[in-house]
Design a protein that fits this description.
Membrane topology: Multi-pass membrane protein
Helix content: over 70%
Main location: membrane
Low-confidence stretches: 1-6, 8-13
Strand content: under 5%
Number of strands: 0
Oligomer: single chain
InterPro entries: DUF697 (IPR021147)
Subcellular location: Membrane
Mean pLDDT: 75
Keywords: Membrane, Transmembrane, Transmembrane helix
Order of helices and strands: HHHHHHHHH
Length: 186
């Protein structure tokens, strides 16, 4: 099980360098399809990186690892689509496309503390799926020239979470289902 998860996380390659390269690119001369392809690659790389960072066995470690990654991803997506976002602009965009990040981080921290081992599997699943969904939603937001409705953004977000969960290794999906069942039983 751990080997399969490690293999899955290993697929991220050298994503940190790739994220930094996003800011060096001139996307203004690219076709919309080329920009979309660059944006999709950034989102996939960041979701895989989030999965690799999630198992750190410290509560709230995501706030030091995954949250900055998501910040850079949204900033990079803005850059790809021609937006120069200030830190406040990134925070506003994250609030719009990411929902309650604090609530999600509290959920992951609680699961890591209450379910040693299993909590890390759930953290991998949740952090990766949420990062992927946040990125897909941000793409729609920037592609629409920041005019997509809240309903459209919610729909895209929910579809992206379901898509990400469907691609997870079976062990991660099982851990996520067990965690959700435990949460409903409380």
């Amino acid at each position: 099980m751990v080997l399969r998860l490690a293999t899955w996380a290993k697929q991220l390659g050298d994503s940190g360098k790739q994220v930094k390269e996003i800011f060096r690119g001139d996307y203004s001369k690219m076709s919309p399809a080329e920009r979309d392809a660059a944006a999709e690659k950034l989102v996939r790389d960041c979701a895989l990186t989030a999965a690799a960072l999630a198992p750190i066995p410290l509560p709230f470690s995501e706030m030091l690892t995954v949250t900055p990654l998501q910040f850079m991803m949204v900033r990079g997506l803005g850059h790809i689509y021609g937006y120069r976002l200030s830190p406040n602009g990134v925070r506003e965009t994250l609030a719009l496309v990411g929902g309650s990040m604090v609530g999600r981080q509290l959920t992951v921290a609680a699961l890591k503390g209450m379910l040693p081992g299993l909590g890390s599997l759930v953290a991998i699943a949740l952090d990766s799926a949420w990062t992927y969904a946040m990125g897909r939603t941000a793409i729609v937001w920037f592609r629409s020239n920041q005019t997509a409705s809240p309903e459209e953004l919610r729909r895209v977000h929910d579809e992206a979470v379901a898509e990400a969960e469907a691609k997870m290794p079976e062990e991660a999906r099982s851990a996520l289902v067990k965690a959700r069942q435990g949460k409903k039983g409380e």
